[in-house]
Amino acid sequence: MDDEPLSQWAERRDARIGQLRAVPLVTGDGPRASHLNPDAPRAIQRWNGHLWEAYGFAANLAEARRILFPHAEAAATPEASPRLGPGTGRHRKPPAP
Prior knowledge:
By secondary structure, this protein is α+β, with helices and mostly antiparallel strands. It has helices at 6-15, 61-68, 72-75; strands spanning 20-24, 42-47, 52-58. It holds the Pfam family DUF6087.
């Protein structure tokens, strides 16, 4: 059994401090996956190094994603899809004679 040194474990744990997560607020033991209840409200939680603490609230999945990933919207701008260049790939249409 390979045990990692305590200093490496503490470093790995401290790297997560400030990380956010969204937890769907559903009753009972219902599905907690985000794609199953996209309109359910979310509690935004922040990792403080020891436990998840309340940080904020989101009305639905889309709002929670905007809070969790603020820079993703700028990167999500649609760009021109790459075109296939000339070649003899296996699934390419052969040139017309």
